[in-house]
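User: My collaborator sent over this chain with a note saying "see what the structure looks like." That's all I know about it. Can you take a look?
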Amino acid sequence: MKPARQPVDGVLLLNKPVGITSNAALQKAKWLLNAKKAGHTGTLDPFADGLLPLCFGEATKFSAYLLDADKRYRAVLQLGVTTTTGDPEGEVLSTRDVAVSCADITAVLPRFMGEIEQIPPMYSALKHQGRPLYEYARAGIEIERPSRRVQIRALELVECSLPRVVLDVQSSAGTYIRTLAQDIGAALGCGAHLTALTRVAAGGFKMDQAHALADLEALDAGQRHALLLPADCLVAHLPALQLDAADAEALCQGRCVAHPAAHPGLTRIYTAPHIFIGLADADAGHLLPRRLIATQQNHPTSLS
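Assistant: Without extra context I'll predict from the sequence alone. Here is the result:
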């Protein structure tokens, strides 16, 4: 029998394996840590693997800041074959000869750089009238989807062994790499689908920092908890201020606090000895609470 659940606060960088959903990986890690509250910061499809940051306890309050961060992927495409889902889990729609060269692929990639329009795939978790699109797709119903603007920051051909192509992709949040693969295949005139996808970075985190589920299972409870990063790692890109005890208490009570060093914008807030208490909106030398943790972290965090 597992012991009673204790508050678990922090971020676990998980290397999600192929073959399970992001939620299944989350629930497994949640069980291993004996945590009460947990969430992830961006779904990876079952066929995909790689970096999946998981948030526990108070860290879940700041997960949106990583959810909205850029991601980087290693995408493996097979040219000449299209599928219903744009990935290996779908049924084959068409098979064509691949009459293109590696030079042709290099030449077409710049079309997909910068801000581009994407139509979200039917096999996605986006909602229509309260139901995810994939439910309509499985029922053979096509729903009209408005296009959305996404940013492709970097797109590089790293391997070309036709019909297999490997791309390095850095993109904004909300980009469907399956759709990008399909659109590149269409531009080449032969079609394409993803056969593998690995998320190698998210925000400021990289996959070489991540831990496999199998490794977590081999550790004891204390060793697992020692792998957790503090909640403020999710907002490390924001400026930081430190308050004295009186001002920190006032902010935690929802009051406005004067601070001469407060520059306009969202700011990380700490109190001595460098304890993270949450985020505040700074404006005209004042701080207004935005998102605060309910309990102080059990260990100090840096102001870097």
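A starting point for your reply to your collaborator: The chain has three domains: 10-68+205-232, 74-195, 238-292.
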